[in-house]
Amino acid sequence: MMTAQAGPAPPAPWLSDALLAIRASEGDEDAFALLVRRHSRSLLLLATHILGNPQDAEEAVQDAFVSAWRRLPEFRHGAAFTTWIYRITVNRCLNARRRRRPPLPLDEVAEPAAHEARSSPSRTAEEDAALAALATALGGLKADQRVCWVLREVHGFSYTEIAHMTGASEEAVRGRLFRARRSLKEAMAPWR
User: Fold this and answer.
1) Are 61 and 75 in contact (CB under 8 A)?
2) Interior angle at CA 153, CA 55 and CA 107, nearest 5
């Protein structure tokens, strides 16, 4: 009886990003596919918040993963894969924003929570108007401020992680966040 030669076993879903990145840099496509599945949803959310357009966001994330696959040999395995792939995605998003002029307003914000049955139509209209005002305010931020705000407030990254992702110093990140928060606070003052 003959047995077929099997290739390497596919990576287990419980493997760490670091180990998967090492395996992917050695040519393991299954390991990279698992990294893509693990991170694509959060990267797509990030890109949509930065670009304001789901189609542009999908393209930016796809470009980021293609770039990551090509650049895996350059990846320093001492760094976190998440930080590295977020930085690539942020750069793709910023490049996409620079290519299109004038900047488009942010049309979409994270999905609002489902309204309870007790919500009145006037309350729903007020919430929708507040979300539209926030989208407009976010769209009015400078790109670097918006990126820092989204990474901190939506994705919960630390100042150090944001600095690595954006290529800025921690002080610059803190300054961008301060200016973004101040602008948003002013824009949203009527909604308090």
Assistant:
1) no
2) 35
* Calpha distance 51→143 (Å, rounded): 9
User: What percentage of the chain's residues is helix, strand, coil (to nearest 5)?
Assistant: 70, 0, 30
Distance, in Å, from the CA atom of 58 to the CA atom of 53, rounded to the nearest integer, reads 9
Which DSSP state fits 167? T
Q: In one letter, which amino acid is 186?
A: E
Helix (H, G, I), strand (E, B) or coil at 71: helix
89-122 pLDDT, tens digit each = 999 998 888 776 554 454 544 555 555 545 677 7
Which residues in 10-41 are b (16+ Cβ under 10 Å) and which e? ebeeeeebeebbbbbbeebeebbebbbebbbe
Amino acid making up residue 112: P
Is the whole model's pTM more than 0.85, yes or no? no
